[in-house]
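REQUEST ID: PR-0412
SUBMITTED BY: lab tech R.K.
PRIORITY: routine
TASK: structure prediction, single protein chain
INPUT:
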Amino acid sequence: MNPKFKSIAKLFQKLPGVGPRQAARFVLALLNKDESELKALGQAIATLKREIRFCGECFNISENGSCHVCSDPKRDRKKLLVLEKVTDLDSIEKTGLYKGLYHVLGGAIDPLDGLTPEVLRFKELARRIETMNKEHENIELIIATNPNTAGETTSLYIKEMFQNKTGVVLTRLGRGLASGSHLEYVDEVTLKNALDYRK
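STATUS: complete
OUTPUT:
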């Protein structure tokens, strides 16, 4: 196989969930694109870090310092829903049912993948809860990690962090979610039930 083809495919393999075959398919698909499309894609990738950032508060995607959720004065500032990824946040926002704030951890505890509590945003979560506690008497901290091994480990870690914290009520999304599933792929009805029947 052509060395240039191989080197481009290896770059695609660095993306999560992309194996050698899928990487090769991406390169083949790009070879069939018009040069103007390739330039537009290259330009978008080159400016990605400058034009898209993470919100300084919740770590949602943002174009400037604060995302649309954190800057919305109508959001319930006594509710904080903790998620693993931005795609999970997007899935919950699509339901239109949750009106509180979010905190994106950046993953779930999985030491085999190098995701330890030190590299996830637990310190930032603790700071946010401290700030919210000063402004409001009772805060609901909703744990919305995925119902799989890493998600459950993360949920237990959060519970241990805040179980004795005065003024913080811990809840978990209801069990409308199937074990082993991921929030970004769950349909809106299941998410609605999970939000409605959280405990």
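NOTES: The chain has two domains: 3-49, 76-196.
REVIEWED BY: pending
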